Amino acid sequence: MQISMRAVVLEGPGQEAVVKEIPIPTPQSGQVLIKVDSAPINPSDIAFLHGAYSSGKQFPCVPGFEGSGTVIANGGGIMGWRLVGKRVAFYSQSQFGTYGEYSVADALGCLELENDITLQEACCSFVNPLTVISMLEVAKEHKTQAVVHTAAASQLGRMMVRHFQANGVRVINIIRRDAQVEMLKKEGADIILNSSDSDFLEKLKNVIQTLRATVFFDALGGELTGKILEVMPSHSTCYVYGGLSLKPVGNVSIMDLIFKDKKVVGFWLTQYLKTKNIISQALLLNQLKGLLKTNLKTIVAKTVDVSEFKEGLEFYKKNMSEGKVLIRFDQKQQQQQQQQQQQLQDKQQ
Ligand SMILES: NC(=O)c1ccc[n+]([C@@H]2O[C@H](COP(=O)([O-])OP(=O)(O)OC[C@H]3O[C@@H](n4cnc5c(N)ncnc54)[C@H](OP(=O)(O)O)[C@@H]3O)[C@@H](O)[C@H]2O)c1
């Protein structure tokens, strides 16, 4: 029986993550043990590796917050028992995250998958898709007709375009490179502004006024946050939900805050979900399930075996808009099997 597994291990925040053999974890009551198939690298994983993400994990630990796989054991409890043998997408904040051959997750953090979705397609089911569903709820609460969005060519940004527009909310997409325009147009985006253009703020002000956008979802922080808020109407709210600029929020006008009732607040999915009762959470997951192959699908740029974690991470950092990099655990074996099959076929011909 296998007792150890390959995993990415982080000894402490900011240290270099290394791939090594460690014992297979034991699930506790309410948890399940999952044989992992695929796990994506998200900006929150990069932040975690650098010690800039609040997760409560103890060190040393296996990073990775979301993934997909098959439940192979139950630590105790009816929810886990029901899942044994099932293919699931899952979210894990346990010490044994998703970058290991086996991971541990709360049974309640697992989403049982339908047969029509592959484990690779399903491994990005939680972080971005649930955030987009939640953001639409937030936008609807504000009764806004349109929202402003930065870093709009991200996977989350593309989901936002599809999902918000399908639900009658326009998206004013802000990107930083012209190459990102086509990426967004393919998703159906019709308002795309490049923050590098000299007349960017003037164009933005016009479109915000025309569409009466009062909600701004900001993935960047830095100087741009305040500049954008300044061209928004009174009573607008900026939800800072990412820190991709690696800078503090800047340029926020005191006049805007005091006299125009504009607000800058944080948005964190984990916190947002805590405001929901079990029934609302179940409804949210049900809605999510139906949209994973359409509005909330993720583009994958590359898959790597866990032994190539470092290379995968570097590729992702340099090519974020291309799509997700997935860490896989049987990639090497599959490649060997494919090569053997090819050699056999070649011999037979
Ligand atoms: N708060 C929450 O609960 C929550 C939940 C989910 C996601 N998030 C956040 O959502 C954001 C998007 O996540 P994702 O997985 O969709 O990202 P992603 O697909 O990896 O894409 C990241 C995008 O950000 C752009 N970008 C990176 N640095 C930038 C900068 N300094 N200025 C402008 N653009 C920059 C990249 O463009 P280039 O190709 O030009 O680099 C790329 O288009 C992240 O900030 C993530 O942390 C937050």
TrEMBL record:
It holds the Pfam family ADH_zinc_N. Keywords: NADP, Oxidoreductase. Residues 14-327 form the Enoyl reductase (ER) domain. It comes from the Eukaryota. InterPro entries: ADH-like_C, ADH-like_N, ER. CDD domains: ETR_like_1 (cd08291). GO terms for molecular function: NADPH binding; oxidoreductase activity, acting on NAD(P)H. The keyword tRNA-binding does not apply. This is Enoyl reductase (ER) domain-containing protein. The lineage of its organism: Eukaryota, Sar, Alveolata, Ciliophora, Intramacronucleata.
